Amino acid sequence: MSLLRALNLPKAPLKLSSRAGRIFVNCLVRKKAIILTPEEWVRQHLIAYLHLNQGYPFEKIAVEKQIQYEGFTRRWDIVVYNQHFEPEILVECKAPEVKLTHEVFIQISTYQKMLGANYLILSNGDTHLIYAVDQQEKRLTTMKEFPKSN
After folding, report:
1. What is the mean pLDDT of the chain?
2. Of 90, 120, 121, 140, which residue is 20 to 30 A from 63 by alpha carbon distance?
3. What's the rounded Cα separation, in Å, for the pair 97 and 30?
4. Per-residue pLDDT for 133 more than 90?
5. Residue 150: CB partners within 8 Å, gap ≥ 6?
6. Contacts from 74-77 at CB under 8 Å and sequence distance 24+?
7. Residue 110, H or E segment
8. What SS3 state is found at 99?
9. Does position 66 have pLDDT exceeding 90, yes or no?
10. Could you give all domains of the chain from N- to C-terminal order, each with its CATH number?
11. Residue among 79, 81, 82, 73 at smallest CA distance from 92
12. Which of 4, 35, 40 is nearest to 19 (CA)?
């Protein structure tokens, strides 16, 4: 599979570079060169989409931060914060060849227990599973479109 293949997202304005035979992408949020992997390709396209198409400022997007859960260190992919800097959207990215299985849903659910975001998005760049979270009823509603910034 080509690292630079088209995804089910608009083309992102990414800056690529090459060093020592490896391809790097300049992260839109972290502002540094990251080794380009299929998952990183999806992550950067989702960041660009959330910013350019859905109106979320880069300042409210955090990428690959660690959390502690039941004695384990985990790292979530993307969190978008609301105007009060509370988690609004939690995104789990997978490489395009990775299917969005029950295990992937369990993974994002684990992070959700810690963060309490209002929306969950699972994406492999081709398929996007989007859910609104009813915190009080502890229920998910499937959405057809990505949430927009207020």
Report:
1. 93
2. 140
3. 25
4. yes
5. 82, 83
6. 74/110, 74/111, 76/111, 76/115, 77/43
7. helix 102-115
8. coil
9. no
10. 16-143 (3.90.1570.30)
11. 79
12. 35
What mean pLDDT is predicted for residues 123-137? 94
3-state helix, strand, coil in the chain (%, to 5): 20, 35, 40
Q: Which two tokens stand for residue 82?
A: 């609301």
What length is written for the chain?
A: 150
Question: What type of residue is 21?
Answer: G
Q: Are strands 16-19 and 72-81 parallel, antiparallel or unpaired?
A: unpaired
One-letter identity of residue 57? P
Most confidently modeled range among 17-21, 41-45, 61-65, 72-76 = 41-45
CA dist 70 → 67, 74, 76, 110, 114 (Å): 10, 10, 15, 10, 10
Cβ contact 56:47 at 8 Å: no
Predicted TM-score of the model (pTM): 0.93
Return all residues near 49 (Cβ < 8 A) that are at least 6 apart.
9, 10, 12, 146
Place of tokens 């969005």: 100
| Amino acid of residue 92 | E
CB of 28 within 8 A of CB of 123? no
Reported as a pLDDT band with limits 50, 70 and 90, residue 150 is confident
